[in-house]
Structures are given as structure tokens and as C-alpha cells.
Amino acid sequence: MNNIPYQPFKMAITRVFDAPRELVFKVWTESDHFAKWWGPKGFSLEVTKMEARPGGMFLGCQTSPDGSHVMWGKFAYQEVIAPEKVVFIQSFSDEKGNTIRASFNADWPLEIMNIITLEENEGKTTLTLKGGPLNASAEEQASYEGMAPMLQQGLEGMFDQLADYLASQK
């Protein structure tokens, strides 16, 4: 993560999962697991590529339940330290992995830096996700901040899906 210019983190969420840290790390970094819980509720995720290592990339396509909305996204992994940390830059993309603007807002930041840390205590894992715009203009930062409550709600819903998925893996 050295030499990556980013603004101070605008979002921080902490959640305790009833699962060992190694399993939580695994479901964040292996495509077979990741595809079963990542994304908005009801959406399906097709993982085209997932190389969870520094310099690696995730590329995937989310589809709405009725098939009317299709969204590609990618992660550029910066740091992956098993089983304690995953750092990635998240962007909307086309099917080839080229970064594109979000379809819902022309002022949405092109890149979002995310840092996930995992700490285990007595068989449970505390996951902390910090995120915020990377190399964003003032307009992009304002757009991100304006949507922060909706973003937080979406992440909480996704973490509910993660908790359910982890429970199914025991």
C-alpha cells in the first residue's frame, strides 16, 4: 500500500462473526466462497477472475434477481496477509476489467480503497472494514459522502449475508 495517495477513510464498519479467522479470510479470498455472499441481497455474482494476492485482481459480474441490471466490478489487490488483512482498490469495470464510471452517478469516485482486518478472539472474528475514495476530486468526495448512509446500509446487509454463509460452513 506504500505510495498510494488516498483521502482519509470515510467509512468504518466493525462486525463480529461467529467463525474462526481462517474461515472468514478464506471466504473473502476464494472465489467459490466469495460468489455465494458478496453483493446486494438477491443479486447473483459470477466470478471471472480472483487472484487474492498483491498485484492480483478480482473481476466479477453481479446480476439483479430479474436479470435487468448487470454490473461489473473489480478489485486490485494491494496487500493480502493470511489470515489477518486484505487491502484492495475497488472500481466499477467493464467485462474486460477496464475501470469505468458508475452507471448510477457520474460523480462517483473511480476508485475506493478498502482495508479489511481480521482479529480472532475465542473462536469469533472481529472484521473491520475501512474505506474511502482514492485520488478523488472534490465532487467525487462529496458524492461518496452524500451516499455514505446508503453505502453503510448496503454493507451491513452484505455482512448479514456473510454471517449466514459462515454459519452454513460449520
Automatic annotation (TrEMBL):
Name of protein: SRPBCC domain-containing protein
Pfam families: AHSA1
Domain Activator of Hsp90 ATPase homologue 1/2-like C-terminal per the UniProt entry, residue ranges: 18-166
Superkingdom assignment: Bacteria
TM ranges: none
Database matches in InterPro entries: ASHA1/2-like_C, START-like_dom_sf
Protein family according to the UniProt entry: Belongs to the AHA1 family.
